Amino acid sequence: MTDKILIVDDEPNNLDVLRNCLREAGFTVSVTKNGETALKRVAHIKPDLILLDILMQGMDGFETCRRFKQNEATKDTPVIFITAVKTGAIDKIKGLEIGAVDYITKPFLAEEVVARVNKHLTISNLRKQLEAQNAQLQDYVYHLESLASLGKVINEAQEVTKMMDKAMQVTLAVFKCDRAWLLYPCDPKAASWRVPVEVTTSKYPGANILNAEIPMQPAISEIMHNALSTSGPIAFGPEYEHKIPLDIAEQFAVQSQLSMAIYPKIGNPWLFGIHQCSHARVWTENEVNLFQEFGQQIAVSLGLSISVEELHKAKLPRERYHDFIGASKPMQTVYQTIDNVATSEVSILLTGETGTGKELCAEAIHKESNRAAQPFIIFDCAVIPKELMESQLFGHVKGAFTNAINDRQGAALQADGGTLFLDEIGEIPLDLQSTLLRFIQTKTFRQVGSDKVKRANIRLICATNRNLLAEIEAGRFREDLYYRLDTIEIKLPALRKRKSDILLLAKCFLQKFVEQEHKNFQKFSAEAEQKLLSYKWPGNVRQLQNTIRNVVLLNEGKVITVEMLKAKIGTEIDEVSTFHSSDNLSASKEKPNVALTSDEVIRPFEEIEQEVITKVIEYCDGNVYEAAKSLGIGKSTLYRKQQKWKPITS
Fold it and tell me: Is the pTM of this model over 0.90?
């Protein structure tokens, strides 16, 4: 499409010369002989640039330019003045102040005119692109902030009715509409329907139907039928194919509506909608997309809230769920959350202290998802050196860097079609966070050393034991990445918050390790059980498991006594005393031994700790994962300790 130029000049010779040279340069040219005519025609012509003579009969060029800048059609159109006299500094300043971008003095060369026109068209186009990008960025930021606001009120609400009410309040504010509501059930064959939640502006109150059973009407039935037949939102109003039925418009004083069916995991679909009552509204594409994301998030949270309430009423707790063990109320909430979010494609953020089972949770989500038959890839951000992380995550091509002797397929491609679990997401460096954000948004990436764009269809689950909001404040984590990851957060409870599970876990671990180690233990003494219940378990389930394994290995008998436990959890510092616990210990291999004293002098704890860990890593043939497992500490903890000791051991 060629650029359009409007020439405004009252001299026929100038018009002919300018028109001919610009047409030869490939432009579409329109001409007018005075300012009045030009002002009447600009809305139709929609020029990309205007050449304007200053000295004209009637309205001069300055006044014409001033009016162009007040006109909606030409306020941003570049204007170049043409003058037959040498323009003084005062006139040039005056012209620039009212909006002109340049001057051309008569007589002029055709080449000069074309060059200046091209220059200012280029500048204008770049400015428009920048404004469009800024607008897109503002929309994107608003999109993220809106989803974050919705997620915040949903996560903070303790009861389903309050959660829905808060969600509708946020919807009303974000979309700047007059009414936001949820209707149940979205079933065109139902005998009746009701509105459990409705939030309105004071100017357009509701129709006094909140929670009332309303007999099904043909108009409502038709709206429900359309919603269930469409995967996304449907817009209603004068400008759309779907019109608002007259009785609905009168009853609810509505002129425009946006609505969609949402599907909680349990129960019938709901109808989620917003009304504009003050005027007929055309919804933008960004608004429709944001509304759809709101609906999806509300559906997940609605299903979770209803499911948890029904589960508590049923009083049928599950003691086991995949590799989880626990019948406590906090764990039932975790299980039910997994049930509700597993089949969704939204990103999941797992939070909680070290040892609470975040990796088990990620595996359970994967096994419950539609991707269960596809790969589940674990990427531990804490144990990979920062300089190698991008290559390990996205892969590299041969020759991308020193020692890159072959192409490498990264974790993203390995997980294609399945689930990618990013453990310790807070350890990812800032420069890689922007690359990860782009990957989450587009599912595309480039391998290190390659310009070729690759695509990976993955479901992303992340985990951290850090406070990511504090990391954002400290400048170590991107806020936009956090909002992309935190669509749904599952917080794994600390063991001290689920004390009723301690004995259940301990007995399961006892049975497991007695079978593995061929021991005779059958139970815990009453005093030992009390000790297990009263201990704080700073290392959570991992520490409890490791403690039971250690006691079974180092003792004989049929009953675990409190004395056996005290040898292991008599003090709060016991992280390094459990290297005997590896599942891979072999009777034919001499176990590491560490002296606590040297020449009858007590050695510093850090020195003993370093020696223990070093020996266990050697014992595990350099396998850091197995060493961490043997020691009963997290891989990230072990990695950080190694990093701290580097100056000592180098």
Answer: no
